[in-house]
């Protein structure tokens, strides 16, 4: 007889290509995961994984059976949601992936308020600037910047009009002066973001339909967007950031928008979900809560 736990571990091991990573995620020992997979293989009378000391991959039979296993787990989860009392629909565990700067600043307060409003819900929040694969990574939803060009997942808009702005702290501007033109901007110390070896030191600024691509001089580089924001607040240089990431700093006077007549790249924010079936009551309510906060900040941007 199939065990639900074994089925779940099989699906996660197929996604992670590792018994060790699956065990770590589930809070088990690798040997326990291996035993569960062997038990499942004996029940099905097939070999699900081809194992070696250095690799783990699905057999053809495992690849064939995987979508049925995923569907079975999704069906059970949907059935579980249907039998929950209507007064306590928001419950269980919701795993969220969010960019580091956005998550630690703007969204963390929303998550805290949402959790207080729904005490039966447990949140697992994963902060990372790496692009989350909502099909393979252990997350239910992800917050992602950029246009949705991938039709394989569902994207719920949160801030379609969000864009990048050039910012610096009052202390930096007092010490180094405020650039009034693009030619003056390139003479200043820039705080630039890097990911997977690529440094984003070409800033796009738009004015009256013309795009100006500005090559800035990197004073400090980091692969953590939150670090770039902190350095800007500390007066270490000028940064090119999403408005949502720095809106609270600007409104509080910790940062000031530079060259406000220009508009930076469009960076719409979306809530990403693998399948429409996973748009549960919990996900929809979280989307509403975050969108409300984004709308408030977009209104404040027009007043700056």
TrEMBL record:
SUPFAM superfamilies on file: Periplasmic binding protein-like II (SSF53850), Winged helix' DNA-binding domain (SSF46785)
InterPro entries on file: LysR-type_TF_proteobact-type (IPR058163), LysR_HTH_N (IPR000847), LysR_subst-bd (IPR005119), WH-like_DNA-bd_sf (IPR036388), WH_DNA-bd_sf (IPR036390)
Span of domain HTH lysR-type: 2-59
UniProt entry keywords in alphabetical sequence: DNA-binding, Transcription, Transcription regulation
Record Pfam families: HTH_1, LysR_substrate
Domain of life the protein comes from: Bacteria
Family under the similarity heading: Belongs to the LysR transcriptional regulatory family.
Name this protein carries in UniProt: LysR family transcriptional regulator
Source taxonomy: Bacteria, Pseudomonadati, Pseudomonadota, Gammaproteobacteria, Enterobacterales
